[in-house]
Write a structure and sequence with these properties.
Blueprint: H1 11-24, H2 28-40, H3 63-68
């Protein structure tokens, strides 16, 4: 059985949900249901195991990447 509930969101919250809906392809209602389950019942919904991998190739590295590299002179 389902229940219909009305909530009031700020413009900022609504815009965020719309953006997430477009990005994920999920309805606003499903996003709200998942947020409620994740906050109040974090172990209720099963989660799929896995990992995410991102890879990028640039001709020149970003300044933040260069700053994190160790200098060969220090080794």
């Amino acid at each position: 059985m389902s229940r219909r509930t009305q909530i009031t969101l700020s413009d900022r919250q609504h815009a965020y949900l719309v953006g997430e809906s477009v990005r994920t392809g999920l309805s606003l209602a499903e996003l709200v249901r998942r947020a409620i389950d994740g906050t109040y019942r974090p172990y209720f919904r099963p989660r799929a195991g896995g990992f995410e991998l991102s890879l990028g190739v640039w001709t020149r590295p970003d300044a933040a990447v260069v700053g994190r590299r160790r200098s060969r002179r220090l080794l």
